[in-house]
């Protein structure tokens, strides 16, 4: 596909949280930003009158918009930070420095200290985060310190130095904030048990801690200490809303390439996420036009080689949705659950969004490609021998057997061809008999097409289950069209697709485009038929009201309606006006009937 105009790119953006990247004509990154709703945020650049000249110049230079979809706004904030630090775009002023988001560190030492930090040092210490707010970190640490007395000094508390009485307890011990491990007043085993509890709190298991704070809040409130109780309540609220997990930044996942693939009849889409030092640093989706009947595994294996070469990836581990052959030195992981599975799902989500956007863009820029893809998909899904370029759908309409009618709607290349729609009054069937009505209308439709040497459809869709389908087949048999035109029935209850002489229906995916086209056909036929039926029933009711007057027949009723347009106007007309249309004798009868 050629370069997509900016207007089209804006129309097809997803309404999801994520990070957007603006590129110039030379494919050089200009700006990175985050958004709660990508479509609204990015579109605002092109619809607002910007106050700053820098922004106006930026907008003029934008030729390409890329984005990465993430689960939450917090993830978008973290990912934006990662990408700005990696690419240092010219138009990003904020976050260009070395500032990073805070982490909580449990130091790798005897009697570990716990403190906030913005730097990750590979010394065996544990890091939790990152957090988008230092306020959350402080409240979490306040909670921990309020429940567990921990040391804050940076002494080397080795066994030998403690036994040699090298240290003396400080003010923190006398204030009750520390249990004095420096003088051996607290054992290493007891301290490590506290650290285990703290790990659970940091990971989001607040049950015991929340119970502690709730009891503390009630105690303070009973003692009339309402201000302190309110402070504790605020901590509870923050902790209850606290989210520790981040998909886009996870220190447990380091230097990994993540690949996922989704495909249709004509194209495959392979998404690539690159994780470096626990953070997503790149996202790219490759579109591949299928030439043969390649499997997803074949396409994924080829894409892995091409993408890794293009971006010069040195990662030794791959996360994939299924096993594929790769270079011998690479480790392949197929995640089943946990953080690794989440990052693979994020890759799949970005591939799906990319595919949706390409569909929308192709509908606008290259409608033939979009049509060809849908036709190929319908041929495959419905097991047809040829693409259903011309489809016709039939529906019956009657209420308690009155005024039975039928409708035939025609779709060409997946779109309604309204000039070819047809209404049918049921002529040979008495009473409400849907099966016989369907048999009559299908026979009349294709007898006429054959007589006039008009082109026949590749597919007939019958609104109804096995009964209506069997009735339609009788007419095709009589006309000698059985087997020459594909025919299916769609039942309303579970949207089952019935085929001739097959008792087991086909259930298409609810999101399938083939099912959507068939549903659109069925709904259009129903709408077209019911409108005709209502108009006919309304006209019949009006005529019967006039014809119930003695001396007024069908012809007179039609003359009156042609002149006065409605029964209401006939009722309001004077004898003189009525006389002009139907004569004095009948005019008196009509006037007296209504008055």
UniProtKB/TrEMBL annotation:
Localization in the cell: Cytoplasm
Residue ranges occupied by any GIY-YIG domain in the UniProt entry: 15-93
Keyword DNA damage: yes
Record's keyword terms, sorted: Cytoplasm, DNA damage, DNA excision, DNA repair, Excision nuclease, SOS response
All residue ranges annotated as the UvrC family homology region profile domain in the record: 262-476
Superkingdom of origin: Bacteria
PROSITE patterns: GIY_YIG, UVRC
Principal place of residence: cytoplasm
Family: Belongs to the UvrC family.
The protein's assembly and partners: Interacts with UvrB in an incision complex.
Free-text function comment from the UniProt entry: The UvrABC repair system catalyzes the recognition and processing of DNA lesions. UvrC both incises the 5' and 3' sides of the lesion. The N-terminal half is responsible for the 3' incision and the C-terminal half is responsible for the 5' incision.
Protein name: UvrABC system protein C
Organism for this UniProt entry: Zobellia barbeyronii
